[in-house]
Design brief:
Order of helices and strands: HHHHEEHH
CATH topology: Arc Repressor Mutant, subunit A
CATH architecture: Orthogonal Bundle
Number of domains: 1
Helix content: 55-70%
Radius of gyration: 18 Å
Strand order of the largest sheet: 1-2
Number of helices: 6
């Protein structure tokens, strides 16, 4: 078993790297969301919903799990975004008791703007590193995410 004394001393531990990069990413994305004033009413915590909502409709329980939020916290954020006109709840055709959450036309504008902002952000980050480094890192982390997802699927009954 590896001990903390065996961790590399020439870099931060992986947890610190990831936490700091996520904070930087969200800060830059949030700043770009308010830059033109169209989405001035979106709060920083709403980013957790936007990053996981998609456009195909999602149940609140699934959104909370994807966003790694409690059901209560996710419900509160969705309620706020619904009141602001960004999201709507519709009956789930596969289960009349359940509701699916969809972005409204205004919400799809946010997702579109966020997609452009993420592309710009990735390009800025790519330019800070030697050629190819950013893309190799993204592919490596993506492979790690897929490996963990596959392990999770295999371990479920």
């Amino acid at each position: 078993m590896t001990t903390s004394s065996e961790l590399p001393v020439d870099r931060l531990a992986i947890g610190q790297i990831l936490v700091r990069l996520v904070h930087q990413f969200r800060s830059e994305l949030f700043e770009s969301a308010g830059a033109d004033g169209r989405f001035h009413d979106i709060r920083f915590p709403h980013l957790q919903v936007w990053g996981n909502i998609g456009t195909e409709g999602i149940r609140l329980t699934d959104l909370a799990a994807k966003a790694q939020l409690s059901l209560a916290a996710c419900s509160e954020l969705v309620d706020e975004l619904q009141e602001l006109g960004y999201l709507e709840r519709q009956p789930d055709p596969s289960d009349g008791r359940a509701k699916l959450i969809f972005p409204t036309a205004k919400g799809r504008e946010v997702l579109d703007a966020a997609g452009h902002a993420v592309a710009d952000l990735e390009q800025r980050w790519r330019e800070r590193l030697p050629p190819g480094t950013f893309d190799r890192a993204c592919h490596a982390f993506n492979d790690l995410v897929v490996a963990f997802e596959n392990e999770d699927r295999l371990s479920r009954p």
